[in-house]
């Protein structure tokens, strides 16, 4: 096989496949390793995991993993979330999204997300396909789930009409674990995420991603040693694949800090860069152009 692979491109004519020219990364041999456990096992010297620019709320890595354990315990013991259940995240960028995502996957349940700008009808069509048993959202967005029959966990304590609110993440993070939860065995080939395409070529399609898929992605990111200890500014939506994987998983594994912008605003972004001494920005080309054309950006 090696002789059939082009040394410059990595392309193999015999099976029309491109092979990576990088050395293969060793992956854990444990077939029952969930991606949350893999991430939490990575050594680093990071201190602050997340900073919410809207509230000033900070989570250290120690506080993050305590929160993940507490939320997972509440989801399992109080709400009955189990392996294979699907949890919808419908929320703007928030310090709670990493906590919820990691907690859900640690239970063997599946994370799916929806664009916060979608209409109730668009969300309904997506949930008809993904069949979530639980949704994490905000009081402002909860009405988009009215009549769906999906139980709702809010970001913070509150109430909203037309939905069955069963808890709040902010409260779960403060609750001591019951000590009664027996962790479900999660297979590395189990589905961890089901994220949807934008629908540019037709109906939006769910893409299945396993725990092993994500573990491999995390391992690849961890291998880039220069990424650790940086301060990332999260300017992209966490409901997108890049935003969710990079800023709830990859950065956590290497001990970098993520500064979260709830919504994108050019001047707010520039102020956050200065205030929090951000070292890495993930930007789309139009944003870079806007920065160069803006007086504040040039300064």
Mean pLDDT across residues: 92
Assign the CATH architecture. 3-Layer(aba) Sandwich
**Rg on CA atoms, Å:** 20 Å
Number of domains: 1
Q: What is the CATH first-level class name?
A: Alpha Beta
Looking at CATH, the homologous superfamily is ANL, N-terminal domain
Biggest sheet layout? 5 strands, mixed
Q: Strand pairing plus helix content: what structural class?
A: alpha/beta
Q: At the third CATH level, what is the topology name? A: Rossmann fold
Give the SSE string: EEHEEHEHEHEEEHEEHEHEHEHH
Distance between the termini: 54 Å
Q: Write down the overall geometry.
A: globular
The level of helicity is 25-40%
Per DSSP, the total helix count is 10
Low-confidence stretches: none
Residues in β-strands, percent = 15-25%
Structural overview:
By secondary structure, the chain is of the alpha/beta class. The protein has a single domain (31-298), classed as ANL, N-terminal domain (Rossmann fold, 3-Layer(aba) Sandwich). The chain is 33% helix and 18% strand. The chain is built from ten helices and 14 strands. The chain has helices spanning 35-40, 61-77, 96-106, 120-130, 169-172, 211-222, 241-254, 266-276, 285-293, 295-298; strands at 11-12, 17-18, 48-52, 58-60, 86-90, 110-113, 134-137, 151-154, 164-168, 191-196, 206-210, 231-234, 257-260, 280-281. The strands form four sheets. Strands 4-3-13-12-14 form a five-stranded mixed beta sheet, sandwiched between helices. Strands 6-5-7-8-9 form a five-stranded parallel beta sheet. The model has no long low-confidence stretch (mean pLDDT 92). This is AMP-dependent synthetase/ligase domain-containing protein. Residues 44-294 form the AMP-dependent synthetase/ligase domain.
């Amino acid at each position: 096989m090696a002789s059939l692979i082009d040394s410059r491109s990595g392309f193999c004519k015999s099976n029309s496949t491109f092979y990576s020219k990088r050395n293969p990364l060793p992956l854990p041999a444990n077939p029952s390793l969930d991606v949350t456990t893999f991430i939490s096992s990575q050594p680093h010297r990071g201190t602050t995991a997340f900073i919410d620019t809207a509230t000033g709320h900070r989570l250290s890595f120690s506080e993050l993993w305590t929160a993940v354990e507490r939320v997972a315990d509440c989801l399992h013991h109080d709400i009955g979330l189990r392996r294979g259940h699907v949890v919808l995240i419908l929320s703007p960028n928030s310090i709670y999204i990493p906590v919820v995502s990691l907690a859900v996957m640690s239970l063997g349940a599946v994370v799916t997300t929806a664009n916060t700008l979608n209409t109730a009808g668009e969300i309904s069509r997506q949930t008809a396909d993904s069949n979530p048993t639980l949704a994490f959202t905000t009081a402002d967005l909860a009405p988009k789930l009215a009549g769906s029959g999906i139980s709702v966990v809010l970001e913070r304590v509150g109430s909203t009409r037309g939905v069955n609110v069963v808890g709040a993440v902010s409260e779960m993070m403060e609750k001591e674990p019951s000590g009664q939860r027996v962790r479900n065995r999660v297979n590395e080939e189990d589905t961890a995420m089901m994220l949807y395409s934008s629908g540019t070529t037709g109906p939006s399609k769910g893409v299945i991603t396993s725990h092993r898929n994500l573990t491999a992605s995390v391992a690849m990111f961890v291998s880039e040693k220069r990424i650790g200890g940086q301060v990332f500014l999260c300017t992209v939506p966490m409901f997108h694949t890049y935003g969710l994987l990079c800023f709830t998983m990859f950065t956590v594994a290497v001990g970098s800090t993520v500064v979260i912008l709830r919504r994108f605003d050019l001047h707010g972004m520039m102020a956050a860069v200065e205030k929090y001494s951000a070292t890495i920005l993930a930007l789309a080309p139009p944003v870079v152009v806007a920065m160069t054309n803006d007086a504040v950006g040039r300064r």
